[in-house]
Amino acid sequence: MAVAAALASLSSAQSFDCTADISPNDEATCDVNPWFAEIVNTTGNNKYEAVEVVTADKYILNMFRFIGGPDGDPIPGQGTRGPVLLHHGEAGDSTSWFNGIEDAPQVPSTLFEQGWDVYLSNRRGTYASRTHETLDPDTDAAQYWDFS
Q: Residue 28 is part of which domain span?
């Protein structure tokens, strides 16, 4: 239940509607992650939004949430089974959930189509989550990477 409560609180997080094609909207947050849009498009997956979450220690993490079918329209039963958070392994990011094979079943899409509210997270330091409110990972590296 703690995960469900945490995901429910994301409704107050800032989100940006991004199209699932090679050219995301002009929103800055979507442009930070063009590789995600390319992979989602390549595998024929669903429309998504970028959700920006700021941690207590001021790291800015980008997550992605499916919000519609490949045509952008809501799907029957969308989100009725509750939220599910998919987090990548140690050396990956949210794109790890897509195998890059066109028309092959993808875990996030399958869960979404079964009625789950699917979020894909990115840990701090990954390409999608390499920002901080006050620190720069390159010029303030010692401080930026000093987290547990």
A: 2-144
Contact 68, 75 (CB under 8 A): yes
User: Which pTM value belongs to this model?
Assistant: 0.72
CATH of the domain at 139: 3.40.50.1820
The structural domain count of the chain equals 1
Q: What is the DSSP letter of 13?
A: S
pLDDT in tens, the chain (148 residues): 444 444 444 444 444 445 433 333 334 445 556 666 666 665 556 778 888 899 999 999 988 888 887 777 888 888 889 999 999 888 888 888 876 666 667 788 889 888 999 999 988 888 888 889 999 999 999 999 998 7
